[in-house]
Amino acid sequence: MSTKTVAYDVIIAGAGPTGLMLAGELAMAGVRCRVVERREDRTRESRALGLHGRTMEVLNMRGLAEEVLARANPIPQVRVSLGHSLFDMSRLATDYGQLTIIPQGETEEILEKRATDLGVAVDRGVALTGCRQNGPVVHCTLEQNGKVWEESASWLVGCDGSRSRVREAMGAEFTGATYPYTIIVADVRLGTPLDDQLLIRVGRAGLVVATDFGNGWYRMGVIDRDKPWSDEPVTLDEVERTLAKLFGRNMRPSEPLWTSRFHIQERQASFYRQGRMLIAGDAAHVHSPLGGQGLNLGIQDAMNLGWKLGAVVGGRASDDLLDTFELERRRVSQGVIKVTDIATRMMTSDRLPARIARRTVMSVASRIPATHRTAVGHLSGIATRYPTMASAVGASPLTGTRVPDLRVAGHGAPVRIHEALRHGGFVLIDREDGAPLLPAVAEGDGRLVRIGGRIVADSGPWNKPEVVLIRPDGYCAWAGPRARARQELALACRRWVQS
Ligand SMILES: Cc1cc2nc3c(=O)[nH]c(=O)nc-3n(C[C@H](O)[C@H](O)[C@H](O)COP(=O)(O)OP(=O)(O)OC[C@H]3O[C@@H](n4cnc5c(N)ncnc54)[C@H](O)[C@@H]3O)c2cc1C
């Protein structure tokens, strides 16, 4: 085996959505990173096709949302056949009150272009076959076309999917379970059109989730109760028969672009970091596809980890900051695993209590405004809050919450906060144009943008604080009155900007 030592700060294993998003974040932070991807080509399978509201906000914070929207079909409402329930995302307080439908391959293309434009090397056809940590270095064994060599980096991040090599090398367990049924996915045209763009239909025969790509094709995700488990290849004939059973009429599917059958699992890694090795995305957690959260969680993991690892590599933070990645993101994926597990069991069981429960729960959740708000808030990621941040000194109830795209009016035209975050650093909103509030070093290194002015329009609780510090991933690090800001902000900064 040859040894080639390349001076990368970070090697990322896996060019899926998580790895590509992370690569872009690290490059923005000035980190030299390289992505190695086992596959020769980008996936052409549609796989994960729905971007939720918070993911679109995050992509907007990096200037990518417009390109996604130009290729996507935005769907504002999900209809569930049970009790004629309707989940309406257009009522969410975001510019992206919708499920944005775009095939995974296209999302990856956009993320890869951003990463390579920022100077990241994405090497396809290169597999990570082993890794070990030795002091401040991680040695990675790489393989391409039978050639094996070793490269080293200061950090290794496994974004290498559910069978992660990096997770294995870290010695983390992937505990959980495999559900006792397989799911069929088929991207097809339908001879019998559907009235809804996104429909979940549940009956005695099973479950179907039908999603309109907006270009004549539909994604049909099906669980057939008569054939719960199979490893056979999917045929168009099987898709036609199963859909006819579930819809009570022939849906006349044709021209399959992609079909697959896969096992549903729910698993979580016992830890996300060991020294200089970390995992994110599917490598750290997998769950039922009901709710379409997989890719969304991966992108949010990358957004959370990117600026933290960037700060550690750049010497602006101690590596303790990385522990907050697991603390914050693990709780979110745990919540998703729990909720999707309950929903999947409820939707797939044919037992009487489950049949009663799903009708009752769906009706209550969709018809009572407060429960509807909670349901779509969690589904979209808009309601995500990082409670570990609440322990920050002087925390207000806004600390740890997602910051909406606030408009701040100063001297010139109003500034949109999600656009202000595009530089990849912190943003400080200060209602007064007074003396700088933060230590000069924090404001001076270009990683903190200060915006003087008042938050305009009806921004609910955000109208109250005079000063707001926003993290690079769009979460509130500190909010409060100017009188408390000088002392408490410095402490908050020590925690988040420079540990
Ligand atoms: C068939 C299928 C259908 C799906 N449908 C949906 C859906 O409808 N909705 C939804 O939300 N989610 C769906 N998912 C899940 C979703 O695709 C994942 O949650 C998402 O892709 C996670 O992104 P990731 O980057 O973390 O991992 P992945 O997308 O799995 O990317 C990991 C990458 O790492 C590479 N890799 C693996 N091992 C190595 C190695 N040793 N060296 C180098 N590279 C390596 C892989 O080739 C891959 O490109 C589906 C998944 C599958 C498999």
TrEMBL record:
The keyword Membrane belongs to this UniProt entry's keyword annotation: no
Entry-linked Pfam families: FAD_binding_3 (PF01494), Rng_hyd_C (PF21274)
InterPro entries listed in its UniProt record: FAD-bd (IPR002938), FAD/NAD-bd_sf (IPR036188), RIFMO-like (IPR050641)
Organism: Streptomyces cinnabarinus
Alphabetized UniProt keyword annotations: FAD, Flavoprotein, Monooxygenase, Oxidoreductase
Keyword Flavoprotein: yes
Stretches assigned to the FAD-binding domain: 8-338
Cofactor: FAD
Protein name: FAD-dependent monooxygenase
One example GO MF annotation: monooxygenase activity
